[in-house]
Structure formats: C-alpha cells, structure tokens
C-alpha cells in the first residue's frame, strides 16, 4: 500500500482486522461524480460533466468490484463513451501491474507500470491501498472516483441524454428494496467470501462461511418462483452485484476462500440465473475465467506456491471460450 505517497513493499491482501480476526475493507477516498451537466453529485466536487471520450476506467477482470463497473458500462451502452484499461491479473509486490498477460493492457493513457502510480500522480502524499476500479478523467488528469458502488450508480444515469439508453438499473419505485437487498448481498456475499478467505481466526471464518451460504440459500429460494432476475423480470443493480460474486464462486471462492459447502453449479436456480445474465448482450466480454483463476490463486498469503487448480469443470455454457 501507499504511505505518504511512497509504496511500502510486501503487499498483503488483509487490509485491517478487528479484535475477532475479521477482515475489514478500506473506505474509498475519491468520491466525485460524473453528472449530466457537471453539477456536483451526492459527494465530492463538481466539474465532471458527462462527455463522450472524456473518461476512462482502470479495471482488473479478477476484481468483482471493477467488474460491476464493466457490466454497467456494457448494459448502458457506454463502450463508445468510456475507454478501459485492464491490468495484469497477477498481483505483484507493488500491487496491480499493467501489461504482460493475455487480455491485459499497457497504460497508454498515463504510461505507468503500476496502478499505485495513478494515485500518487493525483495525490502525491496518498496513504491507502491502490485499488481498482479507478474512474479517470482525461481532461483534468485526475481520479473522479474509486468506489465501484458510486461508479455504477452514476453510469446508470449520467450519460442517458447522450446515449439514449432507457435501461434503468435503479428504478425509483424499487430503490428502497434494491438498497436493502444490496446491503445484505454486500455484507454476506460480496464481501462475505473475502471475509471467509481472509479470516485470521476460525471463528471469523465460520461466521463468514455461514453468512455466505445463508445468502446463497435466500437467493436460490427467491429465484425458485421462476422469475428471471432477483426483483422480477427487469435486471437491476442487485443482479449486477450478485452476478460478480457468483461467476467467481466455483472457480475461486469455493477452493481458495474455503467457501466449500457446495458449488454454485449445484444450486439449480442460481446456475440458470448466472447463465441468463452471462447471455445478456455485452456481459460475456466482462468476464475472464482465466484472469479470475490466475489472479486469485496468485495471492501468496493464501497460496504460497501459486499453483492454480485445474478444476472444477465449469458447467456454464461457453465459459471455456471466455
Ligand atoms: N470499495 C472498492 C473496493 C475495491 C477493491 O477492494 N479492489 C481490490 C481488488 S478486488 C483491489 O484493488 N485491491 C488492491 C489492494 O487491496 O491493494 C470498490 O468497490 O470500488
């Protein structure tokens, strides 16, 4: 991580833990919003008007938080509006690195070797972890936002007048329901798998494991009435947040993070749901199972020899082509 703008060696995945050995995630620092007219959003400063070609996303295919921004970019037809750089999936002792792996890119925009250099370019005294996603403003050469929850919400509306997109992932009448569902999905599932994987006590691991499968059971049940998406026939933010964890589950979390009561492919409604979302236009391109496996299994603290398991055989259609 960066301390007063200087990279401290020996990257470790655990950011902080509480007195019971629970994994604690860092709060994101850059919180400006792109808006239709450049007016300030709910947090941060104004000046970030929606414009074609002005903004850029730095992402990792391994990262569920970054992937949700890619999903919304695809669903909201923003591919022509926001450019993307994908980092190398294998974490180095200087964190995320550019280039050198099939499917990853050089940093053509800023010419850096590591993501942490973006942070110090903008904030020379930055202290904290250099995370992806990073939403970058090419015009003012700064970080707009590094919190994926904000990024997916701003992308849902800010460019609609330019793109003509009518898809609303956070429709007004369902906002309360979506917020409630998102909160439990985040706590028990999205971050729950990390809490299981990075637990530093048996207690913290088991608590997280229970949460993960409790949430999966709830979602499996919710889908069992035949609905297409969690809240009905319309895809929403909650589906995006759920999908990014489900698509990584069998390939990485089941093994590496010890979330091993069962695979997602053993849960019939959830497997069909994953397949359904994967088939939505543009989504398949946001997933790389190769990056996911290589990336997670390169976390030395959990897998010192870096051996990547061959299985499990994934029963998701066409997943091998990803
Ligand atoms: N709150 C952030 C979390 C992002 C995050 O934790 N990203 C991880 C990858 S999955 C990261 O970049 N970690 C690098 C590090 O911790 O040094 C978001 O949702 O945007």
Key structural traits:
322 residues, Glutaredoxin, Glutathione S-transferase Yfyf (Class Pi), Chain A, domain 2, four-stranded mixed β-sheet, two-stranded antiparallel ribbon, globular, binds glutathione, Glutathione-S-Trfase_C_sf, Glutathione_S-Trfase_N, oxidoreductase activity, GST_Omega/GSH
Give the secondary structure arrangement, pairings included.
Elements: E1 2-3, E2 6-7, E3 16-17, E4 23-24, E5 55-59, H1 64-75, E6 82-86, H2 116-122, E7 134-137, E8 142-145, H3 148-157, H4 160-163, H5 175-197, H6 202-223, H7 237-253, H8 268-278, H9 289-296
Parallel strand pairs: 5-6
Antiparallel strand pairs: 1-2, 3-4, 5-7, 7-8
The protein binds glutathione.
Give your account of this protein's structure.
The protein is of the alpha+beta class and 322 residues long. The protein has two domains: 2-163, Glutaredoxin (3-Layer(aba) Sandwich), CATH 3.40.30.10; 172-280, Up-down Bundle (Glutathione S-transferase Yfyf (Class Pi), Chain A, domain 2). 35% of the residues lie in helices and 8% in strands. The chain is built from nine helices and eight strands. The protein has helices at residues 64-75, 116-122, 148-157, 160-163, 175-197, 202-223, 237-253, 268-278, 289-296; strands spanning 2-3, 6-7, 16-17, 23-24, 55-59, 82-86, 134-137, 142-145. Strands 6-5-7-8 form a four-stranded mixed β-sheet, sandwiched between helices. Strands 1-2 form a two-stranded antiparallel ribbon. A two-stranded antiparallel ribbon has the order 3-4. A hairpin with a 4-residue loop joins strand 7 (134-137) and strand 8. Helix 1 packs parallel to helix 3 and helix 7 (237-253) packs across helix 9. It starts with a strand and ends in a 26-residue tail after the last helix. Glutathione binds next to helix 3.
């Amino acid at each position: 991580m960066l301390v007063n703008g200087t990279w401290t060696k020996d990257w470790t995945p655990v950011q902080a833990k509480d007195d019971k050995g629970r994994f604690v995630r860092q709060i994101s620092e850059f919180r400006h919003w792109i808006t239709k007219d450049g007016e300030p959003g709910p947090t941060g400063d104004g000046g970030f008007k929606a414009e074609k070609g002005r903004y850029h996303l730095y992402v990792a295919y391994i990262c569920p938080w970054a992937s949700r921004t890619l999903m919304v970019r695809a669903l909201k037809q923003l591919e022509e509006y926001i450019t993307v750089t994908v980092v190398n999936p294998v974490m180095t002792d200087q964190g995320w690195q550019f280039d050198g792996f099939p499917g990853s890119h050089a940093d053509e925009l800023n010419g850096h070797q590591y993501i942490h250099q973006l942070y110090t370019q903008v904030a020379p005294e930055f202290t904290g972890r250099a995370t992806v996603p990073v939403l970058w403003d090419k015009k003012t050469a700064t970080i707009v936002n590094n919190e994926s929850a904000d990024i997916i919400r701003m992308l849902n509306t800010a460019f609609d007048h330019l793109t003509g997109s009518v898809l609303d992932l956070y429709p007004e009448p369902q906002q309360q329901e979506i917020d409630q569902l998102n909160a439990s999905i985040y706590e028990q599932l999205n971050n729950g798998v990390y809490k299981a994987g990075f637990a530093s006590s048996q207690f913290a691991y088991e608590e997280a494991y229970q949460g993960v499968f409790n949430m999966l059971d709830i979602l499996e049940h919710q889908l069992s009435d035949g609905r297409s998406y969690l809240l009905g026939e319309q895809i929403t933010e909650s589906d995006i947040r759920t999908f990014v964890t489900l698509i990584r589950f069998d390939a990485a979390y089941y093994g590496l993070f010890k979330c091993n009561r069962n695979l997602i492919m053993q849960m019939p409604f959830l497997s069909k749901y994953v397949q359904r979302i994967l088939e939505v236009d543009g989504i398949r391109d946001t997933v790389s199972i190769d990056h996911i496996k290589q990336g997670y299994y390169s976390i030395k603290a959990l897998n010192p020899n870096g051996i990547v398991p061959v299985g499990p055989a994934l029963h998701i259609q066409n997943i091998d082509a990803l």
